[in-house]
Design a protein that fits this description.
Layout: H1 3-13, H2 17-30, H3 34-51, H4 56-65
Helix pairs in contact: 1-2, 2-3, 3-4
């Protein structure tokens, strides 16, 4: 298990939505292919939407550029 995996699990365990936004975005950056990247970025985007976080707009733009969002 990677350090990022451990940090994601810990953030989920404490229900730290703001940490999850950043960690899933980080995982998207670290992913080796577009499908995996978009999987993680979608999670980051959903958490950002739920939190009303400003990160939602750039995450949406990235997903849209990858053809994963309208």
């Amino acid at each position: 298990m990677t350090d990022l995996d451990q940090r994601l699990l810990a953030a989920h365990a404490r229900d730290d939505r703001h940490a999850l936004i950043g960690l899933y975005a980080e995982a998207g950056e670290a992913a080796n292919d577009i499908d995996a990247a978009c999987f993680y970025l979608t999670h980051a985007y959903i958490f950002a939407l739920e939190a009303g976080a400003p990160e939602a707009a750039p995450l949406h733009a990235r997903l849209k550029a990858a053809g994963r969002e309208e």
